[in-house]
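DM from R.C. (forwarded with permission)

"hey, sorry to bug you on a friday — could you get me a structure for this? deadline for the figure draft is monday and I only need the backbone to look sensible"
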Amino acid sequence: MKFQASTSELLKKLQVCYGVIVPNPVLPITEDFLFKLSGGILKISATNIETSISTSLSVNEVEAGEIAVPAKILLETLKALPDQPISFNADVDNNNIELVSSYGKYNLAGDNTEDFPPMPEQESVESFQIEAMKFSSAINKCSFATSNDELRMAMTGVLMQLDYNKVIFVATDAHKLVKYTFGGLNTEISQSIIIPKKTLNLLKSSLSEEGMLDISFNKKNIFISFGDTLVVSRLIDAIYPDYNAVIPVDNPNELAIDRKDLQSSLKRIGIYANKSTNQVILNFSENSLTISGKDLDFSNEATEQLACRYTGEPMSIGYNSRIFAELLNFNDTSEIILQLSTPNRAGILLPDEQDENEHLMMLVMPILSSY
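My reply, with the result:
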């Protein structure tokens, strides 16, 4: 197996695949890239069993073949070289690999490709297309809200509900919830799947915001194709909780406020809050919001009053300042709306402006006052 390629172009493709490789895997072969060369196209694959990714690159082929290449040492070698042509020569009979650059030669030991796990086949799948920009936006707005609790496996991923002409993404960790909906789809599918957070984070770093994604899924796996790249991931086999049950329906009290002002205030007051709960108290009255926090153990206390528009009954609600500020960070409008029902029910955060076919809703759960 022999070819020549640009170090920068090869490195770019390898970095796309390297995201799935984990240290100290159960199968040592999964620390490798799988190279398959035929017809001037080098196909590069990597896997951690749960998630697999493949991409391809046009090269100057000398001799076709396939070999498994140690990922880390190859990646580090290419990073250390300036952009230049490099020759890749592999003796597939004894798995010896030689790299030749303008600086010298580098030898490393490859592995037999027979031991490399195959990618799952697309069997009995449902398929649809979605704009890459919208899917990328859903990842950014939802993946941060997933849980890290392995005992609640469903909540460690993002729920994707297809409902014919619209798709709903939901993520929650029981303290916060994000629901992101957009329409304009053209499918005959009405199904739900749970995509692992790690898979979405991998896509986040490699997705272009232009063009369309081809997405297929069956009961076990999801297949996401864009350009010359294919990502395959196992789905989370669990039942997602009924998130609609925690969304208050009647919310007569409404706050409209500058997003950055509220976020900055929560961060400042949070410095003075109890470090175990990060609790701050929001006092709502007509066109007035007062935020306070205290730590009785250290006699720390702070209060701020913010300009706002508030209509509804006066009330006081306790929130985790860090969670609230984090939710505001993933809204990108200048003003936000907070809709409230009662002090013991979730508050609904909404951008003040939304596109016609797009709807973002976030829930921030209250915490009982400790003072």
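R.C.: lifesaver. The chain has a mean pLDDT of 95.
me: no worries. DSSP finds six helices and 26 strands in the chain.
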